[in-house]
Amino acid sequence: MLVLSCAAPAYPTHFLKSSVPKFAAIRASFTYDHPFVPEVAKAVDSLHSEFRSVDNLVAYNSSRVLKAFQNARVGFHHFAGCTGYGHDEAGGREALDQVFAEIVGAESAIVRSQFFSGTHAITCALFAFLRPGDELLAVAGAPYDTLEEVIGKRDSHGLGSLKDFGVMYREIPLAEDGGLDWDALTGALRPNTKCALIQRSCGYSWRRSLSVNEIGRAIKMIKIQNPNCLVMVDNCYGEFVESIEPPMVGADLIAGSLIKNPGGTVAPCGGYVAGRRKWVDAAAAHLSAPGLGIDCGSTPGDIMRAFFQGLFLAPQMVGEAIKGTFLVAEVMASEGYKVQPLPRIPRYDTVQAVQLGSRELLLAFCEAVQRSSPVGSFTKPVAGATAGYASEVIFADGTFIDGSTSELSCDGPLREPFAVFCQGGTHWTQWALVLEYLLKVQEENLRDGCWKERLQNVLFNVNQKRFKLRAFGRQRWEFGEVGRGKDGIFVREETWKTERRVVLVRFNQDFGFNGGGNGGGGGGKIDSNTARLLGNIALAIGLTYLSVTGQLGWVLDTIVSIWLLAVLVPIVGLGAFIWWAGRDIVQDSCPNCGNEFQIFKSFLNDELQLCPYCSQPFSVVDDKFVMEPVKFSNQTSKSKQAFNGFTPRSKKGKDSSAAVVDVEAEVKDAD
Predict the structure, then answer these.
(1) CB–CB of 377/11 below 8 Å?
(2) pLDDT tens digits for range 442-485
(3) How far apart are CA 330 and CA 44, in angstroms?
(4) pTM over 0.90
(5) Does domain 54-316 have CATH number 3.40.640.10?
């Protein structure tokens, strides 16, 4: 099931520019000799032997499928389809069932469009086996999420789970290596254990998928302990991955979906149940009704033709998907991620799991896959609640068949360890292009600084405490983990596999900032732990906001501008003063005593100018000091008036002094 954000049909323009380069730009350097980026090309070159082995498998399985088609004498009339009850069907149902049964090595099979999904087909098989009082034993750990409500492990709200019908359930946990716990299985069967469920693929568990040989070994151990115990194999994602199928090693029933491996990317819907005839008929009765059998039900002709064609193409499509898993494992492991299965080991299903480690990376990976898909590349997959799943799940499948996992797709539950499960692909080069796209996006983000440090060596001191911030450039910031230790507040966030960089911020106690300082008068206790913590968080959020919104540069520019103004304004002012003083100062020698001094022209007035050394009057004419005749008056002159406007200049760097005498004279006529 694909959950898409249809309300927002396209990515925001700023998101495309800052985070995801356009595909045309990515492929600008494409050549036939070098179609991939170096990381992908290197992985492809190293997988030559694995790819050759897959080609051999495809050839073998294709020959088996071709032989089955020929034995069933498939003809054009089998594609006619039917309507209504389907009683006038031209033999297509019977031929398709016969072909499928021969391919998987079963007595009988029922392949129908009326199966909604693989879970539906498995449910029909389980209800064919189990009756009230019986026990269902899950041999390979917890089953797939969508089976939990079928079994009753998770509440089905009285809608008819096995538990509602009195069927008991038990499961054997996996061994430490992720495989079957053979020791636990040895004595696990009870007399009332009617059915043993074996899940071939990993599902949403971080474990190895099971080979058909391992399944055969488990079946033998089960039958030895309780010959009446029936074995049901969930065969989803396992068809055509090996040269044999579970019915060939003793499985009583297998079930799966046609929009996975056996549909060959062509089947638009449907599922199957195959195995022993008695139990196939019982499963068909649960699909329809007891007594109706398998010779009823209408199927349109175009769907019938797609079933035949998809089944014929399935070995080839599965081979391409297997090559894709090899390539994904090789590239992602080289980038430092945990992968399951490990690179270059034999495959037992078409699923490749990659442990990303965080919700954000899981969402980003699925978005990148959606962007690289042929259908719906302009949409954005969003996580949400999905019927049958206990956790939020995100799906990315830009596929021609809705929900098809035989086509290029990935999905994963939003829970620990945040693994993405990749599957499908009509050709392995699809995954090569997806991986190239992911690497290009990462490279673009690095070039734009999205994963580079936006703040370096930012240091404040407050109570000698420190906290760490991770800068993400233009990307939205979500705090993944916030904690307080002996060194202060730590904020952590995961990114793609790049060097971890942090910004260290300390606050200085001396400034009384953020609860620090030596304080001063009244009020509460400013330096309490709570106030200091809140202050640190506020600063962290402030720096974070400025960083992620791109305003930090503006703030830094403002700080630099203020600093420049604080430095330049005094310099300019001093220069202006010196320039003004140079034009306003008059320097000359006193015409009376010969001492040199300076005077500001702007301070000159109409009153008498006196020399600061000899106290004799003088005048300023054309920037020269000229002698002024003494004029006596009966007015009293104050000393500070006489010095008004003068700036005496010392000789040879020493202070000079002169005696100033305040003279009062009275003029009388001589006798």
Answers:
(1) no
(2) 777 666 554 344 434 333 333 333 444 433 333 333 334 434 34
(3) 9
(4) no
(5) yes
